[in-house]
Amino acid sequence: MDVINYLMLLLSVSMTVAAQTLLKFGSRNVNFEGSMINILLGYMTSPLIVGGFAAYALAAIIWVYCLSAFDLSYVTFVSSIQYVLLILVSLLIFQEHISVMKWAGTGFIMIGVIFWLKG
């Protein structure tokens, strides 16, 4: 396969992680009390949330490209790297506690992905 295809797959996964990170940051500044209109206005006026949605949109466009370049089963399994990246973001950026069980579960998922890709 062409190197560009693999880079696009990595970019799609990275953009998804970036989108979730931006949305998490943005959610800290939105008031979730009050009417639905006020909550939606909070979404639409938060640069972080708008940026998160934009990153998701870009990731989706790149994802469609990846679907044309790879088998669906392949890209779906490779995208599981998001779990590890998001745990690292949770730990390093948001200082969230990641239990041993969560690390073990993530490890099992990644072992399964490796087995699947090799098989």
Automatic annotation (TrEMBL):
It is found in: Cell membrane. Its main location: membrane. One of its GO terms (molecular function) is transmembrane transporter activity. The chain crosses the membrane at residues 43-65, 72-94, 100-117. GO terms for cellular component: plasma membrane. InterPro entries: Small_drug/metabolite_transptr. Keywords: Cell membrane, Membrane, Transmembrane, Transmembrane helix. It is a multi-pass membrane protein. The keyword Membrane applies. This is 4-amino-4-deoxy-L-arabinose-phosphoundecaprenol flippase subunit ArnE. It comes from Paenibacillus solanacearum.
